[in-house]
Amino acid sequence: TRRTFLRVGSGAVAGIAALGSFMPRTRTAMESDDEIRIAVAGIRSRGRSHIEGFRKLANVRVVALCDVDSNVLDREVSHFEKRGEKVDGVADFRELLERKDLHAVSLATPNHWHALQTVWACEAGLDVYVEKPVSHGFHEGELMIEAARENKRVVQTGTQSRSSQAIREAIEWMHAGNLGPIKLARGFCYKPRKSIGKVTGPQTIPEGLDYDLWTGPAPLTPLRRRNLHYDWHWDSATGNGDLGNQGVHQVDLCRWALGENGLPSDVLSVGGRLGYDDDGDTPNTQILWCRYPTAPMLFEVRGLPRDIKAQEEDWGGRMDRYQGIGIGVVVECERGRLHLPNYSSAEAFDLEGNSVRKWNGARNHFENFVAAIRSGNPDELSADIREGHLSAAPCHLGAVSHSLGRK
Asked: CB neighbours of 72 closer than 8 A, spacing ≥ 6?
């Protein structure tokens, strides 16, 4: 069943077709002007960016939308209708897999759905764009890679920094020895996160939402938080806290900067949910340390302002910074440092803090995915599923270390 799928091991991939009558499609060569037909699943928040991102591309058409919340689904379908565009709306993702007119699906669903939907789609012969973190747990990432390779599918990870030529050139410049050997890669998520509140019992499911479908492979338990939407990030049954939410972007940049293409040999994480007592169970304050052959990686989550008074007066305005960065990466080298402050730029400094060189610019991550669909070549992807797994894995292993209380 769907609730035991991810517990049965790698054999699940080979047997996944038994979960539905999804007939695999045969990949055929495509011309540059052939229309790519895409369905977007999970369209309340980030999924809306997926919709607009693909709509703006030449010879790409969003033909279907999927969301378990009928209010969200009706809203987005009506936007298409007002533009004179036709789009189908479905609640159950499995209906998309039965269609014969799709080339790909784009997933912006909650984390706990990513793996199952990706494997299903690969088995059905569809290419996949899956948001970060690609998986909810470590082993899921391995299954996703296996599904992509066995079915010869193109699977892109939503870490869009990988499509930045500026960051790529900056890292190559650093790897050429211009700042000396790397000593430490530091990632930061100093992002204000207020309490999600505390309830005293099960909450009413929002009207129009299919809670069984929303829950999917996660435990079907009563809703015990004020807001079902978004706050699932802070429930470990469905989300990964900011370590796996925002943090996976910075962990990915750190690993890229280190030039590491494997897993860390040691992982240690400590932290807690501090400053308030609410219904979240993921840390809002956390340190992740990973040992890599090149140099260590240190990543921090700080969800609270620097003092209690700030929590009362200016929650978001008094967050900490390191070298001027609140959300980003600083690579410490023997002769300077490289700053990666966002998804599309970089700046190098010498030991005295003087700016040495700057880079700016990024290509379209959705366009990169579509180009790889046309060629059928995963090697053309900026962020293949294996890259997504190798960057999500330290976050998952950090969560395990935090839970165990040891390395």
From this structure: 43, 44
* 405 φ/ψ sector (left φ>0, alpha ψ -120 to 50, else beta): left
> What are the structure tokens assigned to 314, written together?
């200016």
Query: pLDDT tens digit string along 226-268?
Result: 999 999 999 999 999 999 999 999 999 999 999 999 999 999 9
pTM: 0.93
Dist. CA 70–CA 86, nearest whole Å: 18
CB 5 within 8 A of CB 120: no
The angle at the Cα of 248, spanning 243 to 249, to the nearest 5 degrees, equals 130
On whether the CB atoms of residues 345 and 166 are closer than 8 A, the answer is yes
Alpha-carbon distance 139 to 129, whole Å? 19
Q: What is the rounded distance in angstroms from the CA atom of residue 114 to the CA atom of residue 148?
A: 13
Structure-block tokens of residue 345 = 């730029």
| Dihedral (CA of 330, 331, 332, 337) sign | negative
Bridge partners (DSSP) listed for residue 272: 285
Strands 127-130 and 155-157 come out as: parallel
